[in-house]
Amino acid sequence: MTPVATTSATATAVRSPADSPAAGGTSQARPAGRGGSRAKNEATADTKADAKAKPRDAFFDNAKYLAIVLVAMGHSWEPLRDGSRSAAALYITVYAFHMPAFIIISGYFSRSFDMRKDRLQRLITGVAVPYILFEVAYTLFKRWADDDPGYPISLTDPWYLTWFLAALFIWRLTTPLWKIVRWPVPLALAIAVLASISPDIGDDLDLQRVLQFLPFFVIGLSLRPEHFKLVRRKKARILAVPVFAAALVFAYWAAPRMNAAWFYHRDAAQELAAPWWSGAVMTLAMFGCSLVLVACFFAWIPGRTMWCTALGAGTLYGYLLHGFLAKGSRFWNWYDSPWMHTPWGAVVLTIVAGTVITLLCTPPVQRIFRWAMEPKMTWAFKKDPVGMARSRN
């Protein structure tokens, strides 16, 4: 289980390809003569408007950075769960909300997505291309590091962290549909419930995760800035303390009794050796719990610019790159040392995980791997005649 989401068109997992429209917009070119002046004026106005960059919101950058840190920490705790009930409780608590938080932000920044040419291009270069590149890279890494030369490359069966990119691609393509239905969130939740009791869906493109996490993306599409302001009030920050404390206590109780695979949302109930009806119950119960914890998480996110704010633009880098270390630590038996399973070992491991993911989000790392995360690929797309006409004008 991952992850977790981008602010640059391709550099982060939660920014929509529709956030900053390309110069030229979607206005139709008009022939010279009657209406030609109007078209020219409209094109000039659109170009000037597009030239104004949208100001970044420090709140979302901070949220993305802190969420990706929790993703890395959660992965570092996974091998410790069997020998430590406390580690298992922390793991369950974090997994209850870190991916829903990422997905909600992804949906929020996808609100303006439509089938416009420039936005589809950014969807391809910012989501589909990194998915293909890292699916191949992860497979080759597994063949080498896990001494498994026969492990196949399959673009329909995401391995480890790449499922989120496949899901994000599908969710964004469906965005226009969610904008026209009357009750999008209840409909998405009904789809998630049906998926949780349908073991025949299979593993292609991790469709179970795509469908079971879908309600969080649709909620993000439905949110407005004022909704985030509600959870950022002082009263909400105070209430979040006992709520999180109660969640940790419950997780400590549930750790030896509950299958953590429920939090991954990658299987139907029957595949977890549970009765079919429990899929519906668990989906609804976990949806409610996740929403509450996401609200608490957002309540604690600073809204001011901090030392880590700029790192929010590099969360996709940290997300995808740390997977090699997370999996490598298992392949190379780093957790075999008894010291790693002591309280001090767990603390040091947590600090190391947070430090590594922070470094992987920094600008130097972004510059090195931009070719894979943010390929321009202008050669792959037809030229936009409207944009060319505007540049000539």
Automatic annotation (TrEMBL):
<feature type="domain" description="Acyltransferase 3">
    <location>
        <begin position="58"/>
        <end position="360"/>
    </location>
</feature>
<feature type="compositionally biased region" description="Low complexity">
    <location>
        <begin position="1"/>
        <end position="18"/>
    </location>
</feature>
<feature type="transmembrane region" description="Helical">
    <location>
        <begin position="122"/>
        <end position="141"/>
    </location>
</feature>
<feature type="compositionally biased region" description="Basic and acidic residues">
    <location>
        <begin position="39"/>
        <end position="50"/>
    </location>
</feature>
<feature type="transmembrane region" description="Helical">
    <location>
        <begin position="236"/>
        <end position="255"/>
    </location>
</feature>
<dbReference type="InterPro" id="IPR052734">
    <property type="entry name" value="Nod_factor_acetyltransferase"/>
</dbReference>
<protein>
    <recommendedName>
        <fullName>Acyltransferase 3 domain-containing protein</fullName>
    </recommendedName>
</protein>
<feature type="transmembrane region" description="Helical">
    <location>
        <begin position="345"/>
        <end position="365"/>
    </location>
</feature>
<feature type="transmembrane region" description="Helical">
    <location>
        <begin position="307"/>
        <end position="325"/>
    </location>
</feature>
<keyword id="KW-0472">Membrane</keyword>
<feature type="transmembrane region" description="Helical">
    <location>
        <begin position="89"/>
        <end position="110"/>
    </location>
</feature>
<dbReference type="Pfam" id="PF01757">
    <property type="entry name" value="Acyl_transf_3"/>
</dbReference>
<feature type="transmembrane region" description="Helical">
    <location>
        <begin position="58"/>
        <end position="77"/>
    </location>
</feature>
<feature type="transmembrane region" description="Helical">
    <location>
        <begin position="153"/>
        <end position="171"/>
    </location>
</feature>
<keyword id="KW-0812">Transmembrane</keyword>
<dbReference type="GO" id="GO:0016747">
    <property type="term" value="F:acyltransferase activity, transferring groups other than amino-acyl groups"/>
</dbReference>
<dbReference type="InterPro" id="IPR002656">
    <property type="entry name" value="Acyl_transf_3_dom"/>
</dbReference>
<feature type="region of interest" description="Disordered">
    <location>
        <begin position="1"/>
        <end position="50"/>
    </location>
</feature>
<feature type="transmembrane region" description="Helical">
    <location>
        <begin position="275"/>
        <end position="300"/>
    </location>
</feature>
<keyword id="KW-1133">Transmembrane helix</keyword>
